[in-house]
Amino acid sequence: MATTTVPQPEPTTDERRGPVVAFKNVSITFDSGKPVLDDLSFSVERGQQLIILGPAGTGKSVLLKLVDGLLQPDSGSIHVFGEDIVAMRERDRFKLRARIGMVFQESALFDSLNVEDNVAYRLNEGRVPLEESHKRVEEVLNFVALPGAIAKFPSELSGGMRRRVSIARAIITKPDLILYDSPTGGLDPITSTTIVELVVKQRDVSHTTALLITHRLQDAFTLATHQWNFEENKMEPIPNGGIDPSTRFLVLNEGKIVFEGSTQELVHSPDPWLKQYLS
Ligand SMILES: Nc1ncnc2c1ncn2[C@@H]1O[C@H](COP(=O)(O)OP(=O)(O)OP(=O)(O)O)[C@@H](O)[C@H]1O
């Protein structure tokens, strides 16, 4: 299969130094006594899109929370943008989190806030002037194709619209890293595809490094094999059976990495467990 090349923006100084995310021998155990993540080591380079797959309860969400510093490992080191997120003070972790956009499972919008206030939440925290914040909310709602929803409340939106708002909230600060926790979870297949389209658009417009959990293999392969068509403003298959070169896969099972590699390596893996999981 052919691959396409995507022009990449210049790296910032800290990112020239190494991976955006690096786990080394990371383990975490909760009350059950059985490790949820057991001695995990992997890294994500700048501009890469790491799709995380694996059966339910294998620690995928825990992994994303570790990247965001919302959980602490029992052992091992985690570096984000070259900084040791485990050792740093909470105040510094808070600053680092400002560079990360998180799309939580089930959208996690504030029900009492309208779309504008949900989307502008981090700008308001950062005391961005109201006029500037309003302009940026309008821009980002246009990007996620929800220009008419600015004054609505989450309860007035469909599941797919809520996911769009959640993505708008994550990207409004132009983050250097986006963490998507099951962005299509619980959505019907057609709505899921519209969200995948949005993730592809964000990837191809901004080249933001991303980690994305999905339970739907179909979505994972759509992400790997599609690109954003800037002329027609829609997602399309990469010509000649091409594969997005920035997409990589990490497959977890029972707290361990059972696969890490490219799309082609994944589909051609001889591993019997993986073959069955993908079938
Ligand atoms: N804060 C916590 N305290 C105690 N146990 C937790 C906590 N967070 C996660 N777990 C447990 O860790 C295990 C892995 O959970 P996690 O949500 O990461 O799985 P997952 O792979 O994302 O699952 P799914 O595919 O169903 O979303 C589960 O058994 C869960 O109950």
TrEMBL record:
PROSITE patterns: ABC_TRANSPORTER_1, ABC_TRANSPORTER_2
A matching Pfam family: ABC_tran
Domain (ABC transporter) ranges: 21-279
PANTHER family from the UniProt entry: INTERMEMBRANE PHOSPHOLIPID TRANSPORT SYSTEM ATP-BINDING PROTEIN MLAF, PROTEIN TRIGALACTOSYLDIACYLGLYCEROL 3, CHLOROPLASTIC
The protein, known as: Phospholipid/cholesterol/gamma-HCH transport system ATP-binding protein
Entry keywords, A to Z: ATP-binding, Nucleotide-binding, Transport
Residue ranges of the TM segments: none
Coiled coil regions, renumbered to chain: none
GO molecular function, one term: ATP hydrolysis activity
SMART domains referenced in this protein's UniProt entry, alphabetically: AAA (SM00382)
Native source species: Granulicella pectinivorans
Keyword Nucleotide-binding applies: yes
